[in-house]
UniProtKB/TrEMBL annotation:
Cellular component GO terms held in the UniProt record: nucleoplasm; SOSS complex
PANTHER family according to UniProt: SOSS COMPLEX SUBUNIT C
Quaternary structure note: Component of the SOSS complex.
Family as reported in the entry's similarity comment: Belongs to the SOSS-C family.
Protein's name according to its UniProt entry: SOSS complex subunit C
Function: Component of the SOSS complex, a multiprotein complex that functions downstream of the MRN complex to promote DNA repair and G2/M checkpoint. The SOSS complex associates with single-stranded DNA at DNA lesions and influences diverse endpoints in the cellular DNA damage response including cell-cycle checkpoint activation, recombinational repair and maintenance of genomic stability. Required for efficient homologous recombination-dependent repair of double-strand breaks (DSBs).
Domain of life: Eukaryota
Length: 103
């Protein structure tokens, strides 16, 4: 069994004391922050604006992707395609013509 180097017990006690002091300081700062700003925990309407902006930017990005995919498909295929929301994440969907059944 290896013996502990001299001073290691002191270092561990010192570490524990420092961590306890940091924990107390953290709790004190959290309490003072909540007392100085009682409404700080109330969500502001600003994130909703950011979400709307993000949604709008995402929609524009998807529209640009759909347009590019549609142009590519029309240029490289003899089929017909439309842009439509897909359950599987497809940007464009092929259109198959309906043929009247022959009698």
């Amino acid at each position: 069994m290896a013996a502990n180097p001299p001073g290691q017990g002191f270092q561990n006690k010192n570490r524990v004391a420092i961590l306890a002091e940091l924990d107390k300081e953290k709790k004190r700062l959290i309490q003072s922050q909540s007392m100085n700003n009682p409404g700080a925990s109330i969500p502001l309407s600003r994130p909703a604006v950011n979400k709307e902006f993000r949604d709008q930017a995402e929609q524009q990005h998807i529209a640009a992707q759909q347009k590019a995919a549609l142009q590519h498909a029309h240029a490289h295929s003899s089929g017909f395609f439309i842009t439509q929301d897909s359950s599987f994440g497809n940007l464009i969907l092929p259109v198959l013509p309906r043929l009247d059944p022959e009698p």
